[in-house]
Amino acid sequence: MSPVAAPRSTSADPIAPFFGPDYGALVRTDPQIAGVLLDELERQRGTLQLIASENPASPAVLAALGSVLSNKYAEGYPGRRYYGGCAQVDAAERLGVDRACALFGADHANIQPHTGAAANLAVFAALLTPGDRVLAMALQHGGHLTHGAQGNFSGTWFETLGYPVREDTELIDYDRVRDLARSHRPKLIICGATAYSRLIDFAAFRSIANEVGAYLLVDAAHFAGLVAGRAIPSPVPYADVVTLTTHKTLRGPRGGAILCRAELASAIDRAVFPFSQGGPLMHAIAAKAVAFAEASRPEFRNYATQVVSNARALTTALAQEGMRPVSGGTDTHLAVLDLRGAAGVAVRTADGVKVTGREAELRCERAGIMLNRSCVPYDSAKPMVTSGLRVGTATVTTQGMKEPEMHRIAALVGRAVRDADGSVAAEVQKEVAELVDEFPLYQA
Length: 444
Ligand code: DSN
Fold this sequence. Notes:
seven-stranded mixed beta sheet; binds D-serine
């Protein structure tokens, strides 16, 4: 356990607003947790964040999250609650729902899901009965736990089948998806992934779903912010239901949301409450509303476009470091890198042994670079080990970094990954600190 941190901030401090209105109270009543918060702020500021699913929320979002709305019980929906005193939280939720519908051009939005996984659970509950068939991208090929993995509700209560990417191109094979849909006759088809860097042809999925009479769920958890910022095409016109998280590219608070066609609205709402959730987190709902408003501003469009440009630049530069981009590149905010290499450019340790995803992740962390291991398609390594890394540019773009910095980052990642004995970790860490100092998070 780390030692109890001495209070390093008071409510008069410039960083105090990031912890709510009375950070001094936390320092006085719980210096241990206050210390953890400050250490985490220091970690986020002092290291490089390349985890594709993370993004630092704005001070306005954090202010709503750390607010008195956390005190309020409000089971139900605006105007239909099971508690008194809900006028203010009703206003927050109505604003959030209206903003989400306007931002994404959706008929209906439910912004109560606590997480993306909770949103997906609610969609399964709304559209399916246990035992129904589901076709979704295989987990090992970039899919998500809630799309049919064993051990998750989806793979336990439903008959799920995973579609792979092509072995040669590592892209979704729409003919194969159609063939599987024809033979499996799923009631639900899911597209959207956690480790797939390319655009998804939503029209092709719509046509396959229509052919077999299936619902189409697009899990836009990762790329919702890019859709909001008009940097990539929207799934909303094609999907029956779209789920999203609000904390990834969308840069809001940790949480989930569901968009759907008008005729599914009441089934979706009932599946969230009362079926799978109780009291909504009204502070998170207000923070989601803030994030939807932020994402509707013109500057967010510039941000989303830059996220994709940065991801392309970073991916190209990492390829030059010997890390082969799965599918050859990216159209989004993330890239998956195959450390087994290709054409003799495999990343190797000093003793000539190839580096695994797990080892590469540890080496990067040692050098102040946060990213995560990832399976690559047709990976022979175990999921806890893997042969790849996943990187994303949402955070570094929020910090204001552009293409030249992506080249610097790639060089740092390359040095960290090749550093078998840790001899250059301190030097890389120093250069990482210099880079993030130029683009500080949460400037006072
Ligand atoms: N854990 C998220 C990610 O990192 O992609 C998905 O749930």
